[in-house]
Amino acid sequence: MYSVKTYVHALFFAHLVLEKLCKAHWAKDNSGNHPPKLHNLLNIIAQTKLNLSESDKDFLAIMNQFQLEGRYPDYKFELHRKYKAAQTKKILSQVDILRKCLLKKL
Question: Which residue, 15, 21, 42, is CA-closest to 101?
């Protein structure tokens, strides 16, 4: 998505990556139950045993804004104006670092 310059879609899918990893941790820490039908990464993490740094939590809060794009198309116009190549690339790099961290902790 990034390579074809659909930056908001790239960020939406990056949110999905983090959401699925957070839900994997939720499932690990709450056996016998299904992950909540939430998209808010901080709310999901709060129901796990993960101890993330404040900077990681701050980053998850930033990533939460991208969960809406695929579900609420009107919201995308605001995001399209705000996120361009350089900023998206930086965020995707941070997502990759957090993704690896969350995978190691599973």
Answer: 21
Q: What span, in angstroms and rounded, lies between the C-alpha atoms of 105 and 11?
A: 23
pTM value surpassing 0.85: yes
The Cα 17–Cα 9 span in angstroms is 12
Structure tokens at 29: 């820490």
- Tokens 């695929």: give the residue: 70
Q: Per-residue pLDDT tens for 41-88?
A: 999 999 999 999 999 999 999 999 998 655 566 666 778 788 899 999
The 8 Å CB, 24+ separation contacts for 25-33 are: 25/49, 25/50, 25/102, 25/105, 25/106, 28/106
Q: What is the DSSP letter of 31?
A: T
Report which DSSP code applies to 75: G
Collect all residues with Cβ–Cβ distance below 8 Å to 14 and sequence separation of at least 6.
63, 66, 91, 92, 95
The number of beta carbons lying within 10 Å of the beta carbon of residue 5 is 11
